[in-house]
Amino acid sequence: MSKTIMIVDDSSSIRQLVKISLKGDGYEVIEACDGKDALSKMDGKKIHLIISDVNMPNMDGITFVKEAKKLPAYKFTPIIMLTTESQQSKIQEGQAAGAKAWVVKPFQPQQMLAAVSKLILP
User: Fold this and answer.
1) Whole-structure pTM value
2) How many domains does the chain have?
3) Cα–Cα distance list, 27 to 19, 49, 55, 80, 88 (Å)
4) Among 13, 14, 15, 66, which residue's Cα sits nearest to residue 39?
5) pLDDT > 90? residue 46
6) Does residue 88 contact residue 17 with C-beta atoms inside 8 Å?
7) What CATH number has the domain bearing residue 58?
């Protein structure tokens, strides 16, 4: 059975790019346009990994990570931040919230897929 990854980004072109890479590697993909949208789609279905942007309207990525970690079904779901932010302070804030990896845009699909395969839940 294929594994499901949620991609949370307000840029539809980034979501497309990530989705194409992930589907090419055999993953199922759920898309969300911001943290609020993502939380509304986290309704108990198994999500093996989440890839989230940091800067988004309605609910930013760091707040989303904190909220996602409060949900019992997703407490241990690994989260990769995919963002243009590269300051150490932001990265530390993300890690403190529960993000497991930080990939800076523009990214190489291979680099992202390597992070995914390392972190994805069995």
Assistant:
1) 0.96
2) 1
3) 9, 10, 25, 15, 30
4) 66
5) yes
6) no
7) 3.40.50.2300
